[in-house]
Amino acid sequence: MTDSTSPLHREAADPATPQARLAEIAAAHHELHPVIAGNPSCYPALIEWMLQLGTIAPVMPVPAPAASAPANPYAQPGQTSKRPRKKLLIWGSIGVVVLLVAGGGVWAYGAVFSKLGGASSPTAAVEKLLEGTADMDLISLYGSLSPAEVESFKAPIDQLGTIAMDDENGDPIDMPELINTLVDSLNITLTGLELEAEDIEEGIAVVTITAGELTMNGDAETIADAYLEVVAPQLRLQQESWGYDESDTESMIADLRESSIDELNDLLPFTQTAADLADTLGHDATIVTVREGGSWYVSPLLTTGENILQSGSDDSRRGSLVAADDVVTFDTADAAAEGFAEAVIAFGENGDYDDLAAVLPEAERRFLSLYGDALMPTDGDGDYDNLQITDFAVTPQVAGDIAHLDIDGIVIEGDGYNWPYRTEISGVCVTTDSGYSSFDGCLDDAAWMKELGAGSWRVLSVQEKSGWFVSPMRTVADVTGIAVQNLVRLSQDGKLDRLYQ
Question: Residue 360: is it exposed, middle or buried by C-beta count within 10 angstroms (0-12/13-18/19+)?
Fold first, then answer.
């Protein structure tokens, strides 16, 4: 429940609040969506987007969007989000996304993360992804991705967005300006795209790219300079901490710039056909799409699983989605933690991915049930017998729909490989005795792990519509955010050498 006396709540409810500001609040504060929806100044596209996320109930008529015109919460009233179609290829998105993120696009990602909107069909979702890539439109690009998956990384990306990067003079780097400069230097031409869609489950379809050609070009010096504007200050601090003098460091950076420009000039312009890519991969490029809230989105997680599956042996097969009636839900975050631990124990005994998938959030449940056994076969049998949890105590620190789990004490006992087995977990520490060997240690025992904040790493539980679930993916995202924040702190303080002590 939100505090109705808070300034943000009053701003969300005030009819005088500009519509652009309402969109900003909606993007950053999902808990205020019901308040925003009740504001008479809230425009249809924003209502439509909040309905797709499931954060408000459909209590008012919402104009249906035109086919292939996904909702955009930042679209102005009367402004259509339909754009001219372009014929695009997935491998264009791969190169450009990597380039943008490496060049600082992650900061822009935090600014537009919640501007989501699906498509009317699986192929339209893929076209939306590629269209956003070719246009260098991060809103459209990220808006094409599965909300159930990208929401996992919203918190750490928001955290990354608060990190200030300084240039060599100690002045803040203007990331939006840097990204715009980089984007303006790139040119992508994609033609002749042909797509085929195949339904593999209810609400899941594999889209195969069967034809097309990509050409990407750009100014090598501009790209190299944008990269060095972010990296060079950190390199200078690192080299200084390692005892290098300034002239050696500047010479190294100059050499890095020259070699980067030479490599980019050799690479660009870059041209590749769908057939070339298929030869490289050993199979046609595929993208998996999912239906959420009545719209179609690209699933990065399932796309990864599908392409690994197709690159494997001919015997590899997809699994089946866990039936809705078999999903195990929990009323509280600590109950979800205990249920997850019990499911892990059961998996260790029977190797059944479906039972483990049943206690996970939607995105992870889909991935594990479809691709778990194909990627890591268990033959329906685990390695441990007679394991049981003899003590379980966690304290959830709940903040909205996320809970960080403080592990007060978990004890697991039984047999492993015919040996007595006992493991005790407390906080980030673990003690194990397997009869023939033992271990006692903590994540932050190593100096470099301590510097990356391992002592504050926690397992995360998340609340979805049906209940609470432990989320390994959200946990990894949160740990990554903490580690990166500490890494940047060390870099800015010139103390990266602490990671090697």
Answer: buried
Dig out the tokens for 278 from the structure: 């298929």
Is the Cβ–Cβ distance between 361 and 464 less than 8 Å?
yes
Q: What is the DSSP letter of 102?
A: I
- For the chain, first and last CA: distance in Å? 47
Predicted TM-score (pTM) of this structure: 0.67
Say which amino acid occupies 240. Answer: E
Rounded Cα–Cα distance for residues 332 and 489 (Å) = 35
At 381-439, the pLDDT tens digits run 555 567 888 999 999 999 988 999 999 999 988 875 566 678 899 999 999 887 677 88
CA dihedral for 89, 90, 96, 100, sign (positive or negative): positive
Give burial (CB, 10 Å; 0-12/13-18/19+) of 201.
middle
Helix (H, G, I), strand (E, B) or coil at 275: helix
* Contact of 424 with 439, CB cutoff 8 Å: no
Q: How does DSSP classify residue 236? A: H
Question: Domains of the chain: which residue ranges?
Answer: 1-82, 90-310, 324-500
